[in-house]
Specification:
Radius of gyration: 26 Å
Protein name: Antitoxin component YwqK of the YwqJK toxin-antitoxin module
Keywords: Signal
Distance between the termini: 54 Å
Structural class: mainly beta
Region (Disordered): 25-44
Number of domains: 2
Largest sheet: 9 strands, antiparallel
Order of helices and strands: HEHEEEEEEEEEEEEEEEEEEEEE
Strand content: 35-45%
Organism: Belliella aquatica
Number of helices: 2
Oligomer: single chain
Signal peptide: 1-20
């Protein structure tokens, strides 16, 4: 009889130990330290600077193309389809008319907002474009409240392009912005060379204020610093990267700024630092 109890005891003890080990393994997988390595997947971070052609010759060639006779539902040489969204907002009806392309074009990863139509949820999104469930806006766009146009402009493969206008419900012009394939036309771009081909910094400007994603590049084109401005203030997480000669992307330092501009009493702080191999060497415990 004692031997049976002993066998049962060892059986339950072994089962409990095995369950505990499986649970510990599961918990360790679920609580992976995001700061344990500074190495960043190239899929998440572009390692080469964008191609910006703000020279006069490029502008002239683009104007010539735009002056050509516009064919039905063909914009910037791309055949498009029309889309329509209807929404009821209290006592108002909002209509959105847009064109889109099924072309799976690779999007410039440095553009902050990529506009696409989620065909599953029937709504327009600006983040995390997924070609499996959505399509890029391309061509004319208009938004109505009842029968009045309140916003109109043009998209170029998911990016705002040309002149964009917004109105109130009495058709009074409220705002007017100019874009070039997603970049505000007033953005400041500095270069390493005299031919304006090797980009050093891109500072987004709207209404004479820094607004949008800021980029600083090494001379080889790899990203050195990435951050965001809002109303002229640094916001969110700013990340510096080691110069790895485009071999991979490795974080060097992360600095946490206020999440919203003009936050009183907030002082920026270094959140984490890594060495050239991506090994964590410092972390602000208070940020966890």
């Amino acid at each position: 009889m004692k031997s049976i109890y002993l066998l049962l005891f060892f059986f339950f003890a072994f089962s409990w130990s095995a369950d505990a080990q499986r649970k510990n393994k599961k918990e360790s997988k679920e609580t992976v330290d995001p700061d344990s390595s500074g190495v960043v997947s190239n899929k998440l971070l572009p390692t080469t600077s964008p191609l910006l052609l703000f020279d006069e010759q490029a502008k002239k060639e683009k104007k010539k193309k735009e002056k050509k006779k516009v064919k039905k539902n063909i914009f910037f040489g791309e055949r498009t389809k029309k889309g329509r969204i209807r929404q009821n907002l209290r006592d108002q009806v909002q209509y959105t008319l847009f064109n889109y392309t099924t072309n799976k074009k690779i999007i410039d990863p440095y553009i902050r907002d990529i506009y696409w139509y989620d065909q599953k949820d029937r709504m327009i999104r600006t983040k995390d474009f997924d070609p499996k469930i959505g399509v890029l806006l391309h061509g004319p766009y208009e938004r109505f409240i009842n029968e009045t146009v309140v916003e109109k402009g043009m998209y170029y493969y998911g990016t705002k392009h040309g002149t964009w206008l917004t109105f109130d419900t009495r058709s009074v012009l409220l705002d007017k912005n100019h874009y070039s394939e997603g970049w505000p036309k007033d953005s400041r771009t500095t270069y390493y060379d005299g031919n304006n081909k090797v980009i050093e910094k891109i500072t987004p400007i709207e209404y004479e204020l820094r607004e949008g994603n800021f980029y600083h590049f090494y001379e080889n084109g790899q990203a050195a610093v990435i951050g965001e401005y809002h109303y002229g203030e640094k916001v969110g997480l700013w990340t510096e990267y080691w110069d790895t000669k485009n071999a991979t992307a490795i974080r060097k330092r992360e600095i946490q700024y206020q999440e919203k501009p003009f936050t009183k009493g907030f002082r920026p702080y270094i959140r984490a630092e890594w060495d050239k191999e991506g090994k964590l060497i410092y972390r602000n415990i208070a940020s966890n």
